[in-house]
Structures are given as structure tokens and as C-alpha cells.
Design a protein that fits this description.
about 475 residues; alpha+beta; Beta-lactamase; Alpha-Beta Plaits; 3 domains; 5-stranded antiparallel beta sheet; 4-stranded antiparallel beta sheet; 15 strands; about 35% helix; globular; cell shape; Beta-lactam/transpept-like; peptidoglycan binding; hydrolase; Peptidase_S11_N
Length: about 475
């Protein structure tokens, strides 16, 4: 029925138009993501093998699972030394006005970063999530773009963020598979902070705030991660469990109730934990694409022999681009619009039936959801060819930059070796040649780290000396 045509009074005709626009928007929303429909996945956290999958690549709304990415970026800033657990997090009027669940902090007041973290993993505080996003990104909108960039970097090819908390937004979408990747990444990349997700309660003023995750302490092996709920999403849960040398990450999206969601996750843990492998490195989620908001700028700054420092106060990150820096980024990295099928990151060989393999298959087959992603770049994978050693070293390595010239890369390594002290004693400097966009580049790396902790420790020291640095398993 055309209510506009059959409504004589102008005021009601205008109201009819608004109603029609709303209906069209609702229909569009329904085609974007399936509201409240079940999706699930269980991944062996040591091998990456997908043990169970149902609608794992169908678009869903993350709700408060969003806060997992907010926390990922918070942990990243902590690990980089840009903030500390005691850094004050100011609450703007925007943050203070968020809908519950919330801490109820007034505008103009502050809490610490650690209090914000604890409030996110227990109460799932929306006001604290917004405050963290505004502090880390300068604004919540900018932080959401950084979140989306990071999702792409982690291989979450079908996830888009629009806010830091997960309150309803029709453009904020994800999949069960993507959330499993994020859960694995949190465990793998930040073992020093992952323990926050097992917090049963914490004291905030006179309040004792309990964790929304009812499986903690009630299901053997469960050590986190996060719950979520909106009317559109249904009841969501990402769960990590470790017992008897086995480890899994499970995701349930679109539960009909909190009880049925928890019961489904209990059943998944009970069924698939015993068949998970006791072998495997557990190093499953590498950042196969990077953004200038995090690593590309660091590489360029390091390659130019300069340092990359964020301000101790104010928004983090807060990069100051120069024309020369921007040009260097454009030369060193491929554009974000490069088709997935031609991206070597998605074309290299991985083990079949793993989360990584299936994620890449989805990335090739399905377009990334329509979203504006600021300054995203795609990183080429290393080739086997190395520029200074006969074969690529095995084990944990750290990378401190990439340059268009081998001599510059070695100079950068020499400088880092001098300043790294004991952290790099016995470390082997080498370069890795790779081609990106037709240009030959050389990655500057150190090998010889026997485990992840030693590699991360070396990176922490180098970052304190002004170098960019990140660790990976070769």
C-alpha cells in the first residue's frame, strides 16, 4: 500500500515517508546479518583444526563480543609501553551517557586502565569501553576504524566495527569464525594479559562486580573469554578451555537465552575437548596484513633510522604524517583495494581443515563487507629467499623494520644490536627479501629466540629504545 499517495494531510504524508524509509532500512538490515540465528564453531587451539562448525561464516551481530577487540588494542598499547595499567582513562559526556551495562562514572571523572579492563571482562561496561576507545583512538569513530583495520590484520575478513562496546549498530557485523580467530589471537599475542578474562569479580568503590560468564568456575578447564547480548544478536559467547594438555576455543552466537547458550557451550566443550590434540605450537593467528595505525608507520619510521613514539598523554595512537612518510608507505605496501585472490597472504600453503585455511577460503570466495577502512594496507608474506643467510632460520624471530635496500636493513640491525644489549646477545641478524607491488624490499630480523617470551622480552627492550618490533614464529 502506498501510504504517501493515499494520505491527504502533508504532515501525515511526511510521517508515512519516514515510516517507509524505516521499513526499507529494516529490510536492508535483515539482508546484512541474520538477527538472533544460531552459529557456532570449535577450534583446536593447538593445531587450528576446526572440530565443529555450523553457519560459522554467516554474518551476525557481535554485541559485547566487540569488547574483545577493544581489549586487544588496549593490550597492544600496554605491551608497547604507550600506556600503563595506571594510566587515567577520562570519561567524556559521550562515554558517561552510554546505556547499561555500565560503571556509571560521571563525565569529567577518570578511572585507571586496569579498572577499565576489569570492568569490560566482568560487567561488560559500555561506558568504560567508550572511554577506552576515545582515549586510544582520539574519538570513538576513529577507534572503530582502527578496530576494523586490526580485524583485517588478524584475518577477520568479514568483521566490521562501528563502536567500541557492541551496542546495536546495523553495520557492526562479524562471524563465528572471525570471533574464534580473535579469541585465539588474544591468547596467543597477549599471554601476559589474558588472565584478566578469568576474573571472577573485582572491587570498584563500594561495588563488588561479578563476571557475566557463568561457565567460569563451573566447567572444567574454562578460563574465559566473553559474553554478549542484544535483542538483534541473541545470546553470544566466546569460550576458551584448557585441560589435560588440550586446548580449544569455542563460539556460540544467537542463543535463545543465556541458559540455552551456556548449555550449548557446555555440550561443545564436553564433546570436543577430549578429541583436541595435545600437540601443536598454538601459534595460529599471525598478522598477515597491517595498517599504518599500528605497524606500517612503525616499519617506515624504523627504516628511516628514526624512532616511533606515541605521546605519553592524549589519544593513542596519534600519528603525525608527513608527506615523505606517506609516500614511503605507499611505496612499501600494496593498496587495500588489491583483490584477495592476488594477495600472496591468501595464496600461500596452509594445512587443510584448519581455521586459517578455511578463513582464507572464505576471503577468496566472498567479498569483504562494504565498509570504509582508513589507510588499510596489505602485507606480502615472506618468500623462502633470504638475503643474508642460506636458509630461513627456524623458531621465534623478531622484526624491526623493512627497507628498500639491503644495506639499510643491515645498518638498522647493527644499530638495534648495539642498543639491545643482553636481549640480543646471541641473536642472529638477517634480512628477508620479498617483492611488494613490483618493488624489492628487505625485512630486518633477528633469529635465535628459543621461545615466545624471550622474543617478546627482546621486543619490549627494543621498543623502549625507539625501535619498532614484533615477534613471530618462523
Amino acid at each position: 500500500m502506498d501510504c504517501v499517495q493515499h494520505t491527504p494531510v502533508p504532515f501525515f504524508r511526511k510521517a508515512c515517508r519516514i515510516l517507509l524509509v524505516s521499513l526499507v532500512a529494516s529490510l536492508s538490515l535483515a539482508t546484512t546479518a541474520s538477527a538472533g540465528k544460531y552459529a557456532g564453531i570449535v577450534v583446536d587451539a593447538k593445531t587450528g583444526k576446526v572440530l565443529y562448525s555450523e553457519e560459522a561464516d554467516s554474518l551476525r551481530y557481535p554485541a559485547s563480543l566487540t569488547k574483545m577487540m577493544t581489549l586487544y588494542l588496549t593490550f597492544e598499547a600496554l605491551e608497547a609501553g604507550k600506556i600503563s595499567k595506571n594510566t587515567p582513562v577520562p570519561f567524556s559526556k559521550n562515554a558517561s551517557a552510554e546505556q547499561p551495562s555500565k560503571l556509571g562514572v560521571r563525565a569529567g571523572k577518570v578511572i585507571t586502565v586496569e579498572q577499565a579492563i576489569l570492568s569490560l571482562v566482568t560487567r561488560s561496561a559500555n561506558d568504560a569501553a567508550t572511554a577506552l576507545g576515545e582515549m586510544l583512538g582520539g574519538s570513538e569513530d576513529r577507534f572503530a576504524r582502527i578496530m576494523t583495520n586490526k580485524a583485517r590484520a588478524l584475518g577477520m575478513t568479514r568483521t566490521t566495527y562501528r563502536n567500541a562496546h557492541g551496542l546495536p549498530n546495523s553495520a557492526q557485523i562479524t562471524t563465528a569464525r572471525d570471533q574464534a580467530r580473535l579469541g585465539l589471537a588474544l591468547r596467543q599475542h597477549f599471554p601476559q594479559y589474558y588472565g584478566y578474562f578469568s576474573t571472577r569479580s573485582f572491587q570498584f568503590g563500594k561495588q563488588t562486580i561479578g563476571n557475566h560468564n557463568r561457565l567460569l568456575g563451573n566447567v572444567r578447564g574454562v578460563d574465559g573469554i566473553k559474553t554478549g547480548f542484544t535483542n538483534a544478536s541473541g545470546f553470544n559467547l566466546v569460550t576458551s578451555a584448557q585441560a589435560d594438555g588440550r586446548s580449544i576455543v569455542g563460539v556460540v552466537l544467537g542463543g535463545k537465552s543465556g541458559g540455552s547458550r551456556d548449555a550449548q557451550m557446555r555440550a561443545l566443550v564436553a564433546k570436543y575437548m577430549p578429541v583436541a590434540s595435545r600437540r601443536g605450537s598454538g601459534n595460529l593467528v599471525a598478522e598477515t596484513a597491517v595498517s599504518p595505525t599500528v605497524q606500517a608507520v612503525e616499519e617506515v619510521a624504523a627504516a628511516r633510522g628514526g624512532s616511533f613514539n606515541l605521546p605519553n598523554k592524549g589519544p593513542v595512537p596519534d600519528f603525525r604524517y608527513s608527506g615523505e612518510t606517506t609516500k614511503s608507505i605507499e611505496v612499501a605496501y600494496a593498496a587495500a583495494s588489491k583483490p584477495a585472490s592476488s594477495n600472496p597472504v591468501l595464496a600461500d600453503v596452509v594445512q587443510p581443515d584448519t581455521l586459517d585455511a578455511q578463513s582464507r577460503k572464505i576471503a577468496r570466495a566472498a567479498p569483504v563487507p562494504s565498509v570504509e577502512i582508513d589507510e588499510q594496507v596489505t602485507h606480502s608474506v615472506d618468500k623462502v629467499t633470504t638475503a643474508s643467510t642460506p636458509a630461513a632460520p627456524e623458531g621465534w624471530v623478531i622484526q624491526i623494520g623493512a627497507t628498500p635496500d639491503k644495506v639499510q636493513a643491515m645498518t638498522l640491525l647493527d644499530s638495534a644490536k648495539d642498543k639491545g644489549g643482553k636481549a640480543l646477545r646471541g641473536a642472529q641478524p638477517f634480512t628477508v627479501a620479498f617483492t611488494n607491488g613490483g618493488s624489492q624490499l628487505y625485512r630486518a630480523r633477528f633469529a635465535g629466540f628459543s621461545n615466545q617470551n624471550k622474543a617478546l622480552s627482546a621486543c619490549k627492550i627494543l621498543k623502549g629504545k625507539g625501535f619498532a618490533c614484533w615477534a613471530s614464529l618462523q
